[in-house]
Give the backbone structure.
Amino acid sequence: MSSFNALGLSQAMQTNLAQLGYERPTPVQAEALPPVLAGRDVIAMARTGSGKTAAFGIGLIERLKPRRFAVQGLVLCPTRELADQVAKALRALARARHNVKVLTLCGGVAIGPQIGSLSHGAHLVVGTPGRVQDHLRKGTLTLDHLSTLVLDEADRMLDMGFSESIEDILGQTPAQRQTLLFSATWPPEIRKLSEGYQREPVDIRVAETEPKPDIEELFYELEPGQQTDALAAVLSERQPSACIAFCTTKKQCDDVAGDLSARGFEALALHGDLEQKERDSVLVRFANGSATVLVATDVAARGLDIQGLPLVVNVEPARDAEVHTHRIGRTGRAGEAGHAITFCTPKQGHRLTLLEQRRGTELSWGETESLLAIADRPVTPAMRTLAIAGGRKNKVRPGDILGALTGDAGLPGSAVGKIDLFDFECFVAIEAELARQALRRLETGRIKGRNFRVRLV
Ligand code: AMP
């Protein structure tokens, strides 16, 4: 495999990458970086976890002229969550250079502070299309000096209805810009977008053929009925920050999640029988770090945008090799090993024989007896969730909640995690130790001058 120094990166960037623990480029990076660094347009099919952020991020930073205080790079993302993630990655990559200013411009938060930050100037902007448009309209952002525009997760942006916004923004950038388009899928609309706005793009498709990053797999043979004990043992031993446990039936999901909860684990069941409201609440708590284990059926997990987990457990082996590969594909980030553990009763053994035959390699089996001997040690989630009985329709915005918590309630901003806003309800992740304090303060204090019912979920 190639190395970063063969790509002609600056010495500072190479040192920085080494410090970040990036030893060699991922396949997307190896293919995309040469044209990106050469200033060419690129269209790349790449999913989350492929290292796509650094594939454009290294290019943005290396090509930047820090002395020129104008927005030189703009990354458009479908969601605030992704924008925050991208901005964080860019800031880490930018340590290779002095004084690179990265700004996020997303909706759902007050526009005032953003205007203030923009007036101080920025080199790179990461944002969602709607809010970037707002700033262009107000004249608080100009793209006259833009050299590179990145469309990240372009397919999702189109799905979310941002196509007109994107075209509007593109229309306000210099014609000789570099345009980089990243997308996990390849629908006709993406090709149209590329044809309309890119010049002789280099076409990169590694996602489909790219082998998943290392996944360390371990198999255990169990007697029927030992699954929950074995799962509790795995969790107790490995203390993962998050884990999806796959089951076959809805009933099994409920049983396993119920048993684990009774034993002190923060486990939630996810299956097709949940009402939308329950499903939202489950996903919110899992994604914001308040629950450790999501016990799910394949069908329920299908639409989830949850990747890069440290651990996946198959409470029952998947019916076929393809489903197995898909399940365990949720663990493992680029360059970092994921862990997948599969339980199997003697009766289910044939499923794994087929898997073994298909792979042509032997599966490695763990010792069931020593696994089951591990005493329960529930994983303590980093966060707890507060539910506030006010949402979008009550004109509550994430900024109001953040304000109430950090202002009147006196919490440090760093203690507040994800804020998920629904029509009539809002969920806020709070650092576990401070959750009770936050609850008390919100119960007595006010949000936007009003009293909303608050509870710990
Ligand atoms: P992404 O697909 O951009 O969301 O990246 C997925 C994860 O892989 C992130 O946590 C990156 O920090 C990490 N990563 C990106 N490039 C590399 C690399 N060359 N070596 C190791 N880890 C990487």
